[in-house]
Amino acid sequence: MRRILALVALFTSIFASAQIEPVGHGGPGPYKADHLTIELIAAQHEIAESGDGTLGLVFTLEDGWHVYWINAGDSGEAPSVEWTLPKGITADAMLFPAPSRLPLAPLMDYGYEDAVTFPVRIHATKKLKANKGIAHLAAKVNWLVCSSSRCLPGSANLGIDLKVVPEKEKERLHAATEAASKVGALGSAFNELPKLLPQGASAEAIATPEEIIVTLHNGQQEKDAEFYPFVQYQIVNAADQQIVPQRDGVTLRIQRSPDLKKLPATLHGLFKLDDERAYEIDVPLKQGSAPPLSVSKMPASSMGAWAAIGLAFLGGALLNLMPCVFPVLFLKALSLVRGSQAERKHALTHGAVYAIGIVVSFWVLLLALLGLRAGGSQLGWGFQMQSPGFVAVLAIGIFFFSLSLAGFFELGLSMTSMGGSLAQKEGYSGSFFTGVLATVVATPCTAPLMGPAIGFALTQSTLVTFAIFTSLALGLAAPYLLLAANPKWTSILPRPGAWMEILKQITAIPLFITVIWLVYLYASLFAPEQGIYNAALLLGALLIVAIAGWVLHRWPAGWKSTTIAIVIAAAAISVPFLFRATAETNTAWQPYSKESIHAARAQGRPVFVDFTAKWCLSCQVNERAVLNTTAVQKRFREHNVLLLKADWTRYDPQITAELAAVGRNGVPTYVIYPADETAKPDVLPEVLSKDGVISALDKDLK
Fold first, then answer.
1. Strand, coil or helix: what is 78?
2. Strand, coil or helix: what is 670?
3. Cβ atoms within 10 Å of 59's Cβ, excluding its own
4. ω before 30 within 30° of 0 (cis)?
5. Residue 700 class from Cβ within 10 Å (0-12 exposed, 13-18 middle, 19+ buried)?
6. Is 197 exposed, middle or buried (0-12, 13-18, 19+ CB in 10 A)?
7. Which of 237, 489, 548, 652 could be joined to 568 by an S-S link, Cβ 3.0–4.6 Å?
8. Is 262 found in the same domain as 342?
9. CA-based diameter of the chain, in Å?
10. Measuring CA to CA, which residue among 94, 115, 93 is closest to residue 35?
11. Whole-Å CA distances, 181 to 158, 225, 245, 444
C-alpha cells in the first residue's frame, strides 16, 4: 500500500509537471507559486577564478503545506534542480537539512513546513575567466507541495548572475562566503544539515524480525531522538519510535517494515537529536535479538528507590480517580453502605483480601513483563494493551459490566458486589477477585506521578522493581482499606435508597467511554484497512454481549438463562479471534486500469478483475472466503492470471464505464478477461464459491 501511494504521487508529479507552466523568468525571484514562494539566493554575488561559492534554494510555504526530504516517507517526492551552468562552473548536489516527521494519518511523511533552504555548493575552474565579467547560472526547480488532503506539482525557472573576479580575490571571497553562510536563511540551513559523527562518537544497529534498534553513543545522555532512513521501506514510518535514554547516548527501537525481507549490509540514516544536532550514520546492520531494557540504567542520582516507591504509592492512590477505576472503588464502597452491621465488622478483613487481590494481580503482571523483557521485548506499564486479544476481551468484559451498572440486567450489585455474595457463601473469594478486577480495569490508565516511578522501576534490579510495583498496588488498594478500617465514615452518606441505584447507573458512563476508547485502540493496533474491519468485528461482539445481557434481563436469577448468557458471551469473545484480519491476506492484487488489461491480453495473459468497495460487505466476504484462499490463488497462478482490484469505494468514472461495458452498474462484480482479446469477458455471479471460481477459470482459460 505504501509503495502504491508513493508511486502514485511520483507519477502524478512527473505527469503534471510536464504540463504546468513554470513560475519565474530566469531571475532569482522570489516567485509566487501554488502555496509557496521560491527564491534563489547567493552567499556572495561574486565568484573568483578557481574559487567556490554557495547558493540556496529558499522555499517559503503557506500554513498547512509542506515539501519533502530525500526520503519522502510513505508518499511524496523530494525537490530537484537541473542546472544550466556556464563553462568553468560546476554545482554539487543539493543539500537537505534534517527533516521533521509529518503525520498524515495513517501514514507518515518526512519533510519541511513553514520555510526551508537547500544549500548548493558551486565551484569555478580556471576555465572561468574574469574578463567575461558576469556568469549566469540557470536552474529549473521541480517540487511536490502537499497538504493533508491534496498534492500539487510545481516548477520554476530561476537564475542568478555572479560577477567573476580574478583568482587573487579567491581568499577574500572564500572568507566572505563562509561568513555569509552563517547568517540568514543559509545560516539556518547549514545549522540544520546532518553532520558526520564527532570524534569519539559511534553508532550501531541491530535488526530483529520485528524491529530495527539503533543506538548512538555520543558521551552524554539524550532523551529525545528521531531516526530517518535514507532508503525507503526499511521501517514503518508512521510507527512510534521508542526512545531509551542511555548514559552515553540514546537507543531508538523502531518497527521494521514488512517490506524489508532481506537485510541490507548497512543502515544509512539520519539521527536527529534536536533542530541543530543531526548526524548522518552508515553502519553495519546485524541480525540479532533485542537487548533488554536495562542495557544501560539511568543514573542513580535521577531518582532514589525510596522516592520512586513513594511516588508509586501516591500514583496508585490517584489511579482510583481515573474513569476506568473509580466505578469499581465506588461500588465496593457502596457495598459497605448497604451491608449489614455484621458484615461491617468484617469490613477490614475484606479490605485486606481486596488489597491482596490487587497485589497478587500486580505481581502476576510484573512477572509476565519481566519474563517477556528477558526474552528481548521492551515493555512498560500497560504492555498488555499492545495485545489485540487482551484489548478485545477487556472491551467485551467492561461493556458487559457497564450494561449491568446501567440497569440493563442485574447481577446482584454487578460484578463488584458479587464479592459480597461470595463472601457469604465462599469466604473472601469475592473481595479477592474484585481486587483482580480493579487491577485489570486499571491497566488502560496512567495516573499522575505513576510515569516517573514506573519508568525508574523498569531500569532497576528485580527486587527494586517488585518493591515499586507493590507500592503502586498498595496505593490502589489504600482508599478502600482506609474506608474499610473506618466503616463509620459511611454514615456521612444518606441512608440506603433509590439514590444508590441512580449513582450506580451514572458510574456506567465513564466505563462506556472506556469501551469506546478500547475499540479505537483495538483498531489502531492493525494496519488501516484491517483496523476498520476488526473494529467492526469487535462492535459486532459487543452486540452479541448485549444479547446475552437481554437474556439475563428477560429471565433473571435462573441457571438456564445464566448458562445461555455464558454461551452467548463466549461466542462474542470468539468473534474477534476467529474472524480477525491480522494482515493483508493477499498482495498479488494490483490497482485496476484499463491499460493494464489491454497490456496483459496483448502479451497473451488473462486478467481477473475484482470490482469492489470497502463499504460493500458481500465484497469483503467474497474476498476473504473465496478469492484470497489458497486453492483459488493457486489456480490463478497456474493460469498466469493478472489480478486487478478495481476499488469503487469512491466514485471512479473509469471503473463506472467498465462496469457498464460488462452490463453491470454496481459491486460486487467479478470479470474474467481471456488472453484472446477477441473473446468476450465472462462475468461471474455476485455470490462466489471456490469451486465456482475454479470451474470458471478452467472453462474460460482452457
1. coil
2. strand
3. 24
4. yes
5. buried
6. middle
7. 548
8. no
9. 110
10. 115
11. 20, 27, 34, 51
Q: Please check whether residues 49 and 96 belong to one and the same domain.
A: yes
Is residue 305 within 8 Å of residue 466, measured between CB atoms?
Answer: no
Mean pLDDT calculated for residue range 169-198: 84
Residues 603 and 684 in one domain: yes
Side-chain half-sphere exposure of 147, counting CA atoms within 13 A = 9
Rounded to a whole number of angstroms, the CA Rg of the chain reads: 33
Q: Is residue 507 part of a domain?
A: no
Domain membership of residue 222 as a residue range: 202-291
Q: What is the pLDDT of residue 9?
A: 45
Residue type, 183: V
Distance between CA 513 and CA 258 in Å, rounded? 34
The domain boundary residue, chosen from 247, 262, 291: 291
Q: What is the pTM of this model?
A: 0.46
Q: Which three cell numbers stand for residue 596?
A: 493494464
User: Cell match 485496476: residue?
Assistant: 592
Residue 16 has pLDDT above 50, yes or no: no
Give the contacts of 691 (CB within 8 A, at least 6 positions apart). none
C-alpha cell, 263: 537485510
Helix-, strand-, coil-residue percentages of the chain, each rounded to 5: 45, 25, 30
Which tens digits make up the pLDDT trace of 395-413? 887 788 778 777 776 654 3
Rounded distance between C-alpha atoms, residue 320 and residue 437, angstroms: 13
Strand partners, 268: 282
- Among 623, 600, 633, 602, residue whose Cα is nearest residue 670: 623
The DSSP output letter for 142 is: E
